[in-house]
Each structure stands twice: as C-alpha cells, then as structure tokens.
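Annotated sample (chain length 431).
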Amino acid sequence: MTVQPSSSFKSNTLAIIMGGGAGTRLFPLTKERAKPAVPLGGKYRLVDIPISNCLNSGLRGIYILTQFNSTSLHRHINETYKFDDFTPSFVEILAAQQTPEGSKWYQGTADAVRQNMRYFLEHPAKYFVILSGDQLYRMDYRHMVQQHIDSGAEITIGTIPVNREAASGFGIMLTDEKRHISEFVEKPGDPAVLDTLRIPADLLQSIGHPGNEELFQASMGIYVFNREALEACLDNDLIDFGKNIIPEAIRTRKVMAYIFQGYWEDIGTIRAFFEANLDMADTTPKYSFYAPGGTVYTQPLCLPASVIHSAKMTRAMVSDGCILGDVTLERCVLGIRSIIQSGSTLRNTVMMGGDLYESESEVPVPGVPPIGVGRDCSIEDTIIDKNARIGHGVVISSKKGQGNVDGDGYYIRDGIVVVPKNSVIPDGTKI
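Output written by the structure step:
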C-alpha cells in the first residue's frame, strides 16, 4: 500500500538524523571519518540511506547532527544534497558547538537533540522523525507517521521482530495486541525475563506470523515524537533516547510500536559492515539498490566507465571508473576508481577504491606502490579502504577464529583484515 502525503505533510514533519557517534566498533574505518560517512555498496555513504528514505517518503526538511571526524561527512552532504531556490527543502548539518547555553560535546542521542532544540522549534512541525545515520534499510516513513497520528500516540517507536538468539543484543519492547508499549528492557540476558516479552499471539497473527512463533520486538532506534512530547521529554538532563528517555516516557505517556518487517541491519561492527556489503553482490541481495521507487541518492561524479581488460568474475559489484587487468574476482564489491593489476585474485573482498588517479611516476614517495592492488596478489576476507596502496605479490587472508590484531598497515577485527585509508602494504607482504 502506498501512502500519499497530505498537502501539509512536508511542513508538519521534520527529520533529525543522528550522525555524531564516534563509531568505535567500526574502527579503523572510522579512524579518519564519521561513521555515517563510511563508504557503502561501492559508491554510496551510510548516511545516504536515511536521507534517501526521507526524500522518497516526501520528507524535505532534514537535519543531520554531527560531532566526531565530521569533515568528510560535511563535504559529502554539501556536495550531494542541493535543492533549487523555489523548493522549501533542505538537508542541513548541525555540528556540536559552543553556545551561551553550554559548551559540552553531545553526551548522547537525546542530549544532541536537546542542544539543537532551538533550531527544530523554529519550524512549525508537529511531528519529529528521529533516525540513525548508520543503518541499512528501506522504509517509507509516511506509514509510520500515519500510524502515529491514527493511534493518537505521543511517541511511536520503530520495532522489528527478532528471534530469541538476537533479542539479547537489542532493547526489547513489550506491547499488547494494539501495539501499545508497556515495558522496555535493554538487552535482556535473563531467559525468564525474555519469556515475558514475547509478541502476543494475536499481534503475531495480525502481522502474518503463526501465533505460536517465538518473536520479540526489538527497537530500531527510529522514533516519531509529537512536538509537545519531544519538548517535555527533553526538559531534563537525561542523555540517551534508548537508555533514558524511552523507558521514562513509557511510564507516563502513550507510546506505540510501529512494526517493520523488511530488511534492516545496524551497521555497528566490522563484521556487520563486511557481510552487508558482500550480500549486495549476491543473486538475491537482502538490500538492493535496484528497487523500483526506492532510489538511493549520493554525490554525482563525472567518472568514465570501468575498463576490464580480461577478468573472471563471480558475484562482483563493480563501480564507475575502475581499471581491472587480467584478474579474478569472487564475491567482491569494488568502489569508484578501484585499480587492480593483472594476475591478482580477490575473494570476499570489499575494496573502496580511490579519490584520484595516478601513474607510477606520480607516486609521492619513490618505491611506494601506486593506489590500488598490484600484480599477482591474493586477497581474501578483507576490507581495503580508500587510497590504500598494495604492492605486487601481496597475500592477505585472515585465519578462522583469529583475535584482534593491530599490524603494520593493517588491522584484524571480527575475523576481517582491514587495510585502512591511505595505508601502504609493500611488495611481497604476507598477512
């Protein structure tokens, strides 16, 4: 079912995207950039997902709250999301700043919104949609806002059904058959407690599941607030929505659940990021950039078509401007301007490409490999960040069950080798 926005939908609803987290679990991809600025799917950034969801939902007033390593994120937003002078639309960045009211960094998600409330309240919006900047999913927020209005809710929380195994990693909501939330438990580890949080049989059946299936409603970190509710809920010193604001609001306000049943992934770890990217190269990916009516927007680049001299490729996603020699690719995602020289084999590899082209004569330091992957390399289970320089005859492969390692020009996290941005791996290196 398609929800058509009312004539006042754009002016009544404002989107706020949280982009200020340090992203420590995504290190070293976040060593030099904010988590929402991490490249995704060859040519996109993580932040493009919630922004595109907003634009496809008819939401044209979007604020992005930033803090850590935000330079590249700011540049991407400013160069990507431009609107004409006759359209009341904007994607605006609000960075942490010193003001007469205070000079603290954002202490949490709720504190970030609180510190910028004066900007949000300048608009006549009745509803505020609060989103995360590092999740992979496709949602029409008009459905959620419409349910919020129809149910008379003061706050609506996006939830997704998860099984028992996954439930302990989320904040779990207990609702009745009408989706009214009565309890919230953060990452329940006690099986007895978890037993009390199962989705009721009638509600399961109403969303198309067997009544006896064991599922739980996990918070997606997506919220719709009425204007008055947001002001009142932030009139305190509580710093986080999930840990503080929501549990308190459940006791005093009408808080409802919006149950989402599509694909959703919290890109919080190296493993989650790695698997989500490689899945896009599969025959039937869980998240597809080719969904009708679900355009994902990003910075438009004037790049030439990719050149492939001779290659054997199985399940490979190749972005614009790549130059590939006689190579073998098996389940790989190649970002813009990826260069791989002949004789090299990449398996289960995410390569983010480069920000520029260069010849061997233009390499800044003599003896350092040019940007890209050299000849006769064997690379497996690896993330190669932007502008990495990998020499000839390099072998990279992570051992199963290997712990975290901080190496010379590389890291191992979650069993994945990560070659950070601008790193140099000399000829003949074996990792």
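Annotation: The longest helix spans residues 241-252.
Annotation: The domain at 307-425 is CATH 2.160.10.10 (UDP N-Acetylglucosamine Acyltransferase; domain 1).
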